[in-house]
Design a protein that fits this description.
By secondary structure, this protein is of the alpha+beta class. Helix content is about 15%, strand content about 45%. The longest helix is centred in the middle third of the chain and has 22 residues.
Length: about 140
């Protein structure tokens, strides 16, 4: 059973001002979901819109929060993740300040320290971006 962590940003290695998720809302063995409200002072906001780089980072941090949550619940050492590759990135629309993003990652495959994910960012019913990502996760 999933119990949302009290402080999701503690699950990821990134720290303010580079935190691009607010809450890990779901995780299981094959997927995770997060939420993020875009603030005007976010470092990846340009001209009132959250940038493409911000959307990619939001997907990556959702994967990082999943890894942190699983490590915390199994009492393993913290893990650090690195984006190894991004492919098939499609950005359909950029969200605005105060939009709430809902991001889902699905684990396509995991081999040793390499996890292949599919990520999708939505705002309401609108899909904003999607991609596949190769993430390297290294236990500390």
């Amino acid at each position: 059973m999933f119990t949302p962590p009290a402080n999701t940003p503690d699950l990821i290695p990134q720290k303010f001002p580079f935190v691009m998720i607010d809450h890990l809302t779901w995780t299981d063995e094959k997927s995770s979901r997060s939420q993020f409200c875009i603030k005007a002072d976010n470092v990846l906001v340009e001209d009132g819109e959250f940038s493409t780089g911000g959307l990619v980072e939001n997907i990556a941090q959702t994967a990082a929060a999943r890894a942190g949550y699983l490590a915390q619940n199994s009492q393993k050492a913290d893990a650090i993740g690195y984006i190894g590759a991004i492919k098939n990135l499609e950005v359909f629309s950029l969200p605005k300040i105060n939009d709430i993003l809902e991001t889902e990652i699905i684990i396509d495959n995991q081999i040793f320290d390499v996890t292949l994910i599919s990520g999708k960012v939505k705002c309401g019913d609108e899909t904003l971006a999607q991609c596949q990502m190769k993430v390297f996760i290294i236990q500390q």
